[in-house]
Amino acid sequence: MKKSLEQFQNDHLDIYNFLCLFENRENNSFLQDVYNHLAKKGEISVKQINGIRNSMMYHQKKIDRENLKEQHKDDEPTGSFVGKEKQRYDMTLKYVSGKGTSRGFYIHNFVDREDNNLMCFSDHEKLQILDNKTETKADVVYRSLREGDCFTCRATVNRHSVNDFDPTNKFKQTVLNRIKYQRYLGNKNGK
Across the chain, where does the E strand assignment appear? Predict the structure, then answer.
């Protein structure tokens, strides 16, 4: 169903104003296309209105996040960095979480015994570690790490960074690479 320009203005004045007055419309191809279509044809579809509404909500969330970052810009991050950059270390870690990204790789988060935050990037959704319960090479079994699993490894500290994704909870984070998983120690979450 399409609405005329007049119906659109009457029914959705806030969305119309956002579309017409949004200063970065030229940098958003969807909004620019809808604006050009509306100017030429004098009509707009319900899907286009919903798309503009979603763009409005995204823009407002972005402003809110920037304001929150500004309010907390002087907050000191918690935690400590682990090791020196470009050095290789033996570590005992606990697996905290893993999530996929839109780019097709995965981010895995860990903590050490001092509750310092560490992370790595991986091509694999599940991290595999040799299960130490096997006795012979023929019995080799790998287990996927789950939340709370503890293990030993050897890894290189790639860099230190501050994770400020949540501006109210900034923390120091050590980014690892070249991880060689060694021994599974058990799950500290009781799983």
Answer: 2-4, 43-45, 88-100, 106-111, 117-122, 128-130, 142-144, 149-163, 171-187
The C-alpha atoms of residue 31 and residue 149 are separated, in whole angstroms, by: 46
One-letter identity of residue 167: P
pTM: 0.64
The Cα 56–Cα 34 span in angstroms is 14
Delimit the domains of the chain by residue range. 2-71, 88-187
**CB contact at 8 A, 179 and 155:** yes
Q: How many CB atoms lie within 10 A of CB 167?
A: 16
List the end-to-end C-alpha distance of the chain, in Å, as a whole number. Answer: 53
Cβ atoms of 163 and 117 closer than 8 Å: yes
pLDDT by position in tens, the chain (length 191):
888 888 888 898 898 888 888 777 778 889 999 999 988 999 999 999 999 999 999 989 888 888 877 877 777 888 899 999 999 999 999 999 999 998 999 999 999 999 999 999 999 888 888 776 655 555 667 778 889 999 999 999 999 998 877 777 889 999 999 999 888 888 887 55
